[in-house]
Amino acid sequence: MRLATVITEAGSTAAALDEDGIWRRLPAPDLSALMAAGPIRLDDLTDPLLGAVPVQPLPSPGKVVCCGLNYGDHIFEMGRELPAYPTLFTKYADTLIGPGEPIELPAGLKVDWEAELAVVVGTALWRAGRDVAAAAIAGYTVANDVSVRDWQNRTSEWFQGKAWDRSTPIGPVIVTPDEVDVAAGVEVICRVNGEEVQRGSTRTLVFDPADLLAYISTFTILRPGDVVLTGTPGGVGAGRKPPRYLVDGDVVETEIPGIGTLRNAVAFHAGPAHQ
Amino acid sequence: MRLATVITEAGSTAAALDEDGIWRRLPAPDLSALMAAGPIRLDDLTDPLLGAVPVQPLPSPGKVVCCGLNYGDHIFEMGRELPAYPTLFTKYADTLIGPGEPIELPAGLKVDWEAELAVVVGTALWRAGRDVAAAAIAGYTVANDVSVRDWQNRTSEWFQGKAWDRSTPIGPVIVTPDEVDVAAGVEVICRVNGEEVQRGSTRTLVFDPADLLAYISTFTILRPGDVVLTGTPGGVGAGRKPPRYLVDGDVVETEIPGIGTLRNAVAFHAGPAHQ
């Protein structure tokens, strides 16, 4: 099943794609509101929605936690060793944008791509083990953990390079776990202006989605609609010799076959990245 | 002026202390709700509140950003050099507790104290300079960035040692900027079981509150009620030889003269800190 927040002429609504490939309304203005209100009931499917277009699926997650260094090939390209624990940092709801929206950043930054599988929490998790965490996954979506490398590397803490407002594409849809076999492997792909720059498989994740949710829930509660980004495979621009960064007008495509593709253009502006 | 969220027999309310030392009701159930609704108008002061007790002042900040390594003496005790940029990481609203509440953590962790001045944002800030940021400060309060050192040091990213639910005391009141001269220096003090373990002055901050708000607003919007913790002075347990960590039943007092004192007991429990 595919879930989305869609816009129609009548406004925004949560929606699910039925067997005939038609989006049908779910009873909330978006998936964040729907998931906050309780378990998703697919017998709530009502009106067909004509001309529905998926937008950023989760406008108001309370927590967006990201895992770095979670694919062997990316770990080695960044010059690090396989980790004993997940490396975690955070973004905000403000960081996220939807399919087709521009990646808006001030000019002059070293901006890099990081295609990722994102996990959406379906039920609250607090000090959960792996099995409980696995059962709490509402679905998977695509994300690009776009990173401002110069700010990321100003200090030991990556947050200031990872949480630029309106820089992280996510979506276009959330696919329920019955349709996504992360252990067998789904491919995580990034293209820049049509050129493939990353391709990895989730079967090489060091910490899988259930591991990550259980680990995070050891110290902080996860609630329905919270999002965990699972890390990026090899092929980032900073790992190249010489490094390659995004320039104004570049088109970043982030794809997970079986889930969908995000297409976002880089839109640098003249506003201050002073400090 | 002192602002607080207080409880009375009638429930929770935002409140301000009048010239006679009496708490008076402000029109919202807490300071987070009051600040989200617009500028604080002190002509809104109404009923006197008898038996009012300050609790956690800001139950729902959208962003809690923390600065590490911001006092010279703490930087040197952690074996680091004076930084060119602030080191930033995050907590959640879930991380915060109020005056008198226990610091609840699983047994077996290396738990340390970090007394800090906290800044509360009063008006939205987006790509602000220093002067605009300074004018946007609603007030100051006391916080203790209680840190789980073993988890903080598992990876390069401190977040997982800093964001344990119900571990960071904050409050008891927010004092408006006209009463707190951070540049001249207010003292930031921590005591454990009555023994003073930290005492620093904000006049030695590397990055002052206006610097921090302006810097953060370069990449993410700050909204009324958001909180920035400004870092801790020297004297943390991890900086001692041998290191000293908190044990069950320890009473942590965090004081900034002119603002107030937090008193929180450590309550370790048997729940899992597995993983």
TrEMBL record, chains A, B:
Molecular-function GO terms, alphabetical: acylpyruvate hydrolase activity
EC number(s) per entry: 3.7.1.5
Keywords: Hydrolase, Metal-binding
Domain Fumarylacetoacetase-like C-terminal, residue spans: 63-266
Entry keyword Metal-binding: yes
Homology family: Belongs to the FAH family.
PANTHER family: FUMARYLACETOACETATE HYDROLASE DOMAIN-CONTAINING PROTEIN 2A (PTHR42796:SF4), FUMARYLACETOACETATE HYDROLASE DOMAIN-CONTAINING PROTEIN 2A-RELATED (PTHR42796)
Name of the protein in its database record: Acylpyruvate hydrolase
